[in-house]
Amino acid sequence: MLGAGTLAVSAAAALGTGAFSAAQVSGRDVDIAVVNDADALVGLVPNPEVGGVHDDDGELVIDLGTTGINQNSVYQFGLFVDDDSGDAIAGLTPFPKKSNEPSSVGDQSGEFDSAFLITNQTNNTYDLTIEYRLEEEDVGESGEFNTEFWFEVHNDGEQLDQIHGPTPDPVAEEITLGSGETIGVSFLLHAPDETLGERIDGDLAVDAVVSE
């Protein structure tokens, strides 16, 4: 699946002891990397204010390994968009936490509310394909799988896509990202009772191609 201009984000979360991490692969036609300087073209920007989300030697890392993931808990990484037309998450009040434009970057502070951003710092327009695959790897002690994920992509106060997982089949969203534009990604993990030992495995891939 990896090829020119492809970013691969692989993730795994193990309840009780787990970690959730992401790895970046740069392609030949477009530089896709964690954006810390002016050299990156299309890149990832981790939110330093979101616990567990950080840049680790050029890799976007979302890590819960220190504390683990508790049963009967909700973990949210970044704010979801407050968009009435977007998909709702039932039964998790007061989650997800929301804001009007989570991907908006402050002019002076540089702060934003998404877990991470995908940003285009080129003079070109790119067609992005964001593909998610989240599936159960271990059903844990209960023999059933109850842990859930929600990923949301948003821009300018609008929900562009939301995936509810785990799901064995990849789900793709195509988005056009103009010069200087940014989209945000946030996600939420719900681990109800009797989820000890459950594990979610998956990947998030972003393919960037210059728009014709």
Give your account of this protein's structure:
The chain has 212 residues and is mostly beta strands. The protein has one domain. Helices cover 0% and strands 49% of the residues. The strands form four sheets. Strands 2, 3, 6, 9, 11, 12 and 14 form a seven-stranded mixed beta sheet that branches. The protein has a four-stranded antiparallel beta sheet with strand order 1-15-10-13, with no helix packed on it. A hairpin with a 2-residue loop joins β11 and β12. The N terminus is likely disordered. This is DUF1102 domain-containing protein.
What is the average per-residue confidence, as pLDDT, rounded to a whole number?
70
Helix content: under 10%
Low-confidence stretches: 1-39
How many runs of DSSP E, i.e. beta strands?
Answer: 15
Q: Determine the structural class based on helices, strands and strand pairing.
A: mainly beta
Compute the number of structural domains: 1
Shape: globular
Element pattern in H and E? EEEEEEEEEEEEEEE
In what range is the share of β-strand residues?
over 45%
The major pleated sheet works out as: 7 strands, mixed
